[in-house]
Amino acid sequence: RQQPWALPPCANIPLYLPHYYQIYMKLAVATLLAGSAAAFAPAQQGARVATTLNAEKSKSLPFMNRPALLDGSMAGDVGFDPLGLSEIDEVGIDLYWMREAELKHSRVAMLAVAGILQVEIFGPAPGCEAATAKCQMDAFWQLWNSHPQYVAFGFIMITIIEMISGIAATTGRETGDRAPGDFGLDPLGFGKGDAAKFERLKAQEVANGRLAMWAAAGLLMQGCTTHQGGIENLMQALSDNAF
Q1: How confident is the model at residue 29 (pLDDT cuts 50, 70, 90)?
Q2: Are 113 and 216 in contact, with CB atoms under 8 Å apart?
Q3: Separation between Cα atoms, residue 77 and residue 82, nearest integer Å
Q4: pLDDT tens column, 115-162
Q5: What is the pTM of this model?
Q6: Average pLDDT for residues 231-243, to the nearest whole number?
Q7: Quick one: how far is CA 24 from the chain centroid?
Q8: How many CA atoms lie within 13 A of 223 on its CB side?
Q9: Do the beta carbons of residue 132 and residue 142 sit within 8 Å?
Q10: SS3 per residue for 168-187
Q11: Rounded to whole angstroms, how far apart are CA atoms 239 and 243?
């Protein structure tokens, strides 16, 4: 008589049991490995996210991290560098060179805007009476047609100034003994007075220089397109758009 707990004679379990056991063990090991990976992966991602969130944000762009080299030590530095230009030193242009260029163009733009408005308001300088146009872009060609030697002399002076400033910038960049844009020109002795006031003046120079670059670009654009002076064009725009 067959016992209730005995296996039927036709059962083939002993033949298939090792195969099923191997499959089960493989699935168990794979599950454990997957669980281990899932356990450690969120922690690493969380660490990266925490590092990103804890990074110092830019003052000018609070939704972006502060560029590494823009630590606020330079006058006017508010961490604005969305294109990452402060870190492109692979092509021979580093932060020193970029700062030198910014200060140079700021100073030239301030002189240009003051000169354009001064001539438009008070008329041409002595010896340049032929430049009667209010638009200084047109006045330049008037002066070129009447006194080309003036323009040629201006180009020669620009070349000399560029040579001097280029040598100063290259030397200062290599030695580190010269701050960008520093030519030792301080006839009023601002640098010898209150240090905090001098730093504030440097920040104001940068701020006004950046504004002047936008203003110079606007004056050049509107002069070439409307052939009107800056003030003349402003009055015309106010008149045309007045309510």
Answers
A1: low
A2: yes
A3: 13
A4: 999 999 998 888 888 888 999 999 999 999 999 999 999 999 999 999
A5: 0.71
A6: 86
A7: 60
A8: 22
A9: yes
A10: HHHHHHHHCCCCCCCCCCCC
A11: 9
In angstroms, rounded to a whole number, what is the distance separating the alpha carbons of residues 242 and 240? Answer: 6
Contact 76, 207 (CB under 8 A): yes
pLDDT at 37: 43
CA distances from residue 94 to 88, 169, 207 in whole angstroms, order as listed = 6, 12, 21
Residue 14's SS3 state is helix
Residue 41 has pLDDT above 90, yes or no: no
How deeply is 220 buried, as exposed, middle or buried, from its count of CB atoms within 10 A (0-12, 13-18, 19+)?
Answer: middle
- Do 171 and 178 form a contact (C-beta atoms < 8 A)? yes
Report yes or no: 80 and 62 within 8 Å, Cβ to Cβ: no
What is the C-alpha separation between 123 and 117, in angstroms, rounded?
Answer: 10
Tokens of 27: 């699935």
Angstrom distance (rounded) from CA 54 to CA 63: 12
Give the Cα separation of 14 and 12 in Å (integer).
6
Enumerate the H helices of the chain as residue ranges: 13-54, 95-122, 136-146, 148-175, 195-226, 230-240
- For residues 151 and 131, is the Cβ–Cβ distance under 8 A? no
CA angle, corner 58, sides to 53 and 62, nearest 5?
A: 70
| The pLDDT of residue 116 | 93
Beta-carbon contacts of 44 under 8 Å, excluding residues fewer than 6 positions away, are: none
Rounded distance between C-alpha atoms, residue 202 and residue 191, angstroms:
10
Q: In one letter, which amino acid is 172? A: G
| Rounded Cα–Cα distance for residues 199 and 76 (Å) | 10
